[in-house]
Amino acid sequence: PPFMFSADPLELLGKHFSLKIGGSEWSKALPLAAQGSIGTVEIPDTKRWRGQHRRAYELALSILPSNSKFWRTKIITVTPRFALANTTDRVIVYTQPDSGSLFRLEPGDFIPF
């Protein structure tokens, strides 16, 4: 669902923002001025396994200007960078490197990864 926020220009020092998902760490500062850009951002989880980050959230990011009526508004779209789709009739078991966890993808499932 869309999420809207507004900030006083004095609060946006350097015109950057950061993202956080649930209990993750904060992402690196991302520039708001990069209109039209499409890129990726990796947000490490706070849970660690063997001294390494247990998992990371990889997101695709797009920053586009709004229409002329709202010319000072930027539309930031955040989507999962990867998705898993099981189009077989069998269960798929998968893991992330160094996570120590196994996950199941049932036939017909489609999930963000």
| Terminal residue distance | 18 Å
Largest sheet: 3 strands, antiparallel
Task: Determine the structural class based on helices, strands and strand pairing.
Answer: mainly beta
Count of helix runs: 0
Oligomer status: single chain
Rg, nearest Å: 18 Å
Question: What is the topology, as strand order, of the major beta sheet?
Answer: 3-6-7
Overall 3D shape: globular
Q: What's the helix-strand series?
A: EEEEEEEEEEE
Overall strand count: 11
Strand % is 35-45%
Q: Low-confidence parts, pLDDT < 50 over ≥5 residues?
A: none
Helix content: under 10%
Mean residue pLDDT: 79
How is this fold's topology laid out?
Elements: E1 16-17, E2 30-31, E3 38-44, E4 48-49, E5 52-53, E6 56-65, E7 74-80, E8 83-85, E9 92-94, E10 103-105, E11 110-112
Question: What does this molecule look like?
Answer:
- The chain is mainly beta.
- It is built from no helices and 11 strands.
- Strands 3-6-7 form a 3-stranded antiparallel sheet, with no helix packed on it.
- Strand 4 and strand 5 form a beta hairpin.
- The radius of gyration is 18 Å and the shape is globular.
- 3% of the residues are buried.
Briefly summarize what is shown:
The protein is mostly beta strands. It has strands at residues 16-17, 30-31, 38-44, 48-49, 52-53, 56-65, 74-80, 83-85, 92-94, 103-105, 110-112.
Q: What characteristics describe this protein?
A:
mainly beta, three-stranded antiparallel β-sheet, 113 residues, two-stranded antiparallel sheet
